[in-house]
Specification:
globular; alpha/beta; seven-stranded mixed sheet; 18% strand; Spore Coat Polysaccharide Biosynthesis Protein SpsA, Chain A
Length: 245
Amino acid sequence: MPTKSPIEDLLVVSCHIGIFHASTVSMLPWAPGIARREVFFANDVAVLPRAAARGWQAISLASRLPISNSSLWSSLQSKYVKFLQFLNADRDGYASVKRVIYFDDKESPSAGHLKRLLALGEGCDVTIRRTPRNKSTVWEEAEDALSQERYRLNMPQTVSWVIRSIGHLRNGSISSNVMVVNTGLILYANLTQTVARLATPVYRHTQQLRQPECQIVWAVDSQRFPGKICKIAFNELGQPARHLY
């Protein structure tokens, strides 16, 4: 149900990247109805009318992100939306946007959940949840990721990159001991800085490493970010968890 006064400077986005199976249509999230503009991106055109029926402005990325039957490749492609690269590609189209809420298509936050997120994120450049089970080191995240083939495939070079990243900063700015976050729901503000100094480096490194497990990459790159990142409890918003990894 849309709010009476949609927030003008807020953009809400989600996406489904990869081949769409009609049997999963009921899993597509509803547009929360909190913002003037709420966009659902997809590279399978079959998704578009279904997303529109759920209240979204449905936009095709088929020309930019060719559809693939590889779960690893589709997951990598989805980072284009999660880490706001579409803003770089169409600055004029989103010129009025000051804040962006991204959530995975497995999530289903309501307008109430997102209003609470906005309140908790007041004064923060980025607001993001911790993982359901608190993880205080990047190595915990890497170990958990080994259970999924698409994450496991390129883990050796990912681990090497983490080690190099730690070693390159002798002042100790980058540590493996960091609170891991869940990237399934993110509030971005101060977009000029957060896109250039956080979202784009995370996107670039996931693509270079061919590593769709972006929570490992975020754990490292976020330590370089000069802005304020607010980490909230996974259940702080009150919505049920849709996935626990």
